């Protein structure tokens, strides 16, 4: 492929790819923010209500854990189809970038919850017992001991979730969700344009690498163990 051909191809497709990248970032950012806002407290509740937890309630923990497990076990493509009525109720449509955020968020919440629960389990029980012996309330223990001590693992969980959301957003593109996945399907697959297919794959890889690198740097910065 000559330089002139490459230049012409870029002029023709650069705007399409930039818009698709923006849509992917938009989906991942919004779904991530809402998913973390709900999933992190949910993970904390799962941890503190388990047997031997700060606020032990095994019956509640079992029910909540079962709901989270169901949410995690449903494949994302199936989830998107299954909650079409919910998506239409919330955003008025089940097609498009904004509509894709609904299943992305619902898929992220149980995923985040289990990761956060696992992160909190790694906090030494001796630290919690020491805080209890000094009269700290459960809320104080959560905010002053559990979350700060688990912060490196939590940040790593955030990184894993964002990377997963990038792959989910690409799957959302297969059913009209927008983003790089949509470009790969509509222009790369349906129009047999192998070049644009390859470019979208590379852009997704680069996006994942950037997220992973930033996440690793943040974990390294806050991990003083």
TrEMBL record:
Q: Name one GO biological process term.
A: D-methionine transmembrane transport
Q: Where in the cell is it found?
A: Cell membrane
The record ties this protein, via SUPFAM superfamilies, to:
MetI-like
Pfam families membership = BPD_transp_1 (PF00528)
Q: What InterPro entries is this protein classified in?
A: AA_ABC_Transporter_Permease, MetI-like, MetI-like_sf
Provide one Gene Ontology cellular component: plasma membrane
Q: Where are the transmembrane segments?
A: 25-48, 60-84, 90-113, 154-176, 196-219
Query: Keyword set for this entry?
Result: Cell membrane, Membrane, Transmembrane, Transmembrane helix, Transport
By its UniProt entry, which PANTHER family does this protein fall under?
Answer: ABC TRANSPORTER PERMEASE, D-METHIONINE TRANSPORT SYSTEM PERMEASE PROTEIN METI-RELATED
This chain belongs to the protein called: ABC transporter, permease protein
Higher taxonomy = Bacteria, Pseudomonadati, Pseudomonadota, Gammaproteobacteria, Vibrionales
């Amino acid at each position: 492929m000559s330089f002139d051909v490459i230049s012409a191809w870029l002029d023709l497709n650069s705007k399409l790819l930039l818009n698709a990248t923006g849509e992917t970032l938009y989906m991942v950012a919004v779904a991530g923010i809402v998913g973390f806002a709900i999933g992190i407290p949910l993970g904390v509740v799962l941890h503190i209500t388990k047997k031997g937890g700060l606020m032990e309630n095994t019956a509640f923990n079992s029910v909540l854990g079962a709901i989270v497990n169901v949410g995690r076990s449903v494949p994302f493509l199936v989830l998107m189809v299954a909650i079409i009525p919910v998506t239409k109720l919330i955003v008025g449509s089940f097609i498009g970038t904004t509509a894709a955020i609904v299943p992305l968020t619902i898929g992220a919440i149980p995923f985040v919850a289990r990761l956060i629960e696992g992160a909190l389990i790694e906090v030494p029980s001796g630290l919690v017992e020491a805080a209890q012996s000094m009269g700290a309330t459960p809320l104080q223990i959560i905010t002053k001991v559990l979350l700060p001590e688990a912060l490196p693992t939590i940040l790593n969980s955030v990184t894993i979730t964002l990377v997963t959301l990038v792959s989910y957003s690409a799957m959302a593109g297969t059913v009209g969700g927008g983003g790089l996945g949509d470009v790969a399907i509509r222009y790369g697959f349906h129009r047999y344009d192998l070049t644009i297919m390859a470019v979208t794959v590379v852009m997704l890889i680069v996006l994942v690498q950037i997220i992973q690198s930033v996440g690793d740097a943040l974990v390294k910065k806050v991990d003083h163990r």
